[in-house]
Each structure stands twice: as structure tokens, then as C-alpha cells.
Amino acid sequence: MLNSMPSLSALRAFEATARLGSVTAAAHELSVTHGAVSRQLRSLEEHFGVALFAKAGRGLELTSHGERLQRGVGEAFVRLRDSCAQLKRDVEGAPFLLACPGSLLARWLIPRLDRLHRELPELKLHVVSSESEATPGKDEVSATLTFAAPPWPADVKVCVLAAEHICAVASPQLAARFDPAQPATLFNAKLLHTASRPQAWPQWAGAQALDPARLDRALAEGQGFDHLYYLIEAAVAGLGIAIAPRLLVEDELRQGRLIAPWGFVETPARLCLWHAPSGDQRRSGRLIEWLKRELGDMLLP
To answer: Which residues form the HTH lysR-type domain (predicted)?
Structure first.
């Protein structure tokens, strides 16, 4: 009959052998014996009445008929595998990959990560550190939690969570040497800074009406760090005065390990969750609600 189909198992054995070029390799991949694959190939050649393989040294090569069959069968099995994998992901739920700058991850998210996993187990959250602003939907991430100033990327949905407030912080012992009513007195201490946030000190000093030239000299004589995490630890150790987002030093301020003698300055940046418009809106929404609960009174109205 013209419309008769060979068995699927025979086609599967043919596809594996054609792709791997070996009956032995196909048998290993399919977890069957060498003889079982050989029988399936013979049944397929009998079905079509033509040879599909020819010997080539120790291996096999496709005949012209085999090449013709392989083109259709190979494409069909690729589509079958993709369909099955997609269904499995849909049923089980693919991981929700959250990108987050290392300092925000280490100082704010990781201390809350166990609670997040317990309260949102269906999220299947995986977190990656990303110092660049990874774009959801393009950088293999589901969402990005970051401090960023507008304009934001046009091809992502942005949920603005909180304003960024920065503060100059010092250990209690060091802070006791300065006048809270006179921000300029901090120039008598070593200023700690990081290359990852070069705008922070100028933003804070501008809001305090401090002399930019004097700030530049103080920074040149200060101590630089590669990462904000080390900067904050240096401030806790009493090595100088650091500039940092309030969110990332909130625990130290509450515990009294750091003091912000001159208060907080709001910057143009916002703590945001970026997510792709075509992404999983249900899980993004659940994460946004969780973040809002954790942020509490820091949320923007």
C-alpha cells in the first residue's frame, strides 16, 4: 500500500544510525542490542525494497535512498524531541532565572533567599550575579532586579519598587569624630569609594552643597575597592567613610555597626524588576508581590 508506514521503532533506529554513522553507537544511544538495531534496519529496507546503507570501511554511509529518507526522518525526530521537551518544561515549570548585581545579591537578596524559596516554591528560582543590566528575554534570564536610572529598555516591562537613597556611613567610633550638622567635616577622614559606582559620591556631595574640587582631592587620597561589598566591610572595620545605598546597609544601620550621620540623599535611580513582556507574567507577578512585602516602608507610594 502506498500509504503504509513502517514501524516507529524502525524509523527511530534508522535515524540514530544515520546520525551517528554506526549501528553500535545507535544501539548504545537507544539502550538496545546491536542485533536489535540491525533487525530494525533490515525490516526498513525490506519495507521500501531498497538499500538504505552501504559499508564504508568500518562504518556505514547512506545510499541516495537513505539520504532522502534521512532528511525527512531527521527533521521529524528533531521536532518530536523539541515538542516533548517543551511539554515537559510546561508541565514541570522551567526555572525562573533572576539576574541581580553582585552587591545587591550578597547584601540583600541572599539573606532572604531561604525565605523566598519557602514562600514561593513554585517559582523554581535560580539566581545569577550580573554586573551588567541583563535584558530579560534576550540574555536567557526571566527577570532582572537592579538599581537603574531611567530611561529603561523599551522592550522590557518595568516594575518600579523603591527609590534609591544613598548615605555616607562610618563605624560608630569613627562617626563620633564628626559633626552631624557639618557634612564637610567628613573631609577629615579617608573616603572609601568603588569603581562600580563612580557617581555616588558626587551625587551625595552635590546634595550636601560640598565643594566638588575638595571632594575630588579627598577621593584621590582615599581608598578604592573593586566591589561595593568590600567597601561596606571596610567601613564596618573603621577604615574610612563609605558611600552606599541605604538598602544595602540597612542591617548594619539597624544593628549599630554603621551610622549615617548626615542622613540620606535620593538619587534618580530606582530599584526595579525588569521582566520580558512575553515571559511568565504569573511568576513575575508573584515575585513582585514578595519583593514588595520584603521592602515594606521603603516602597514608593
So the answer is: 6-63
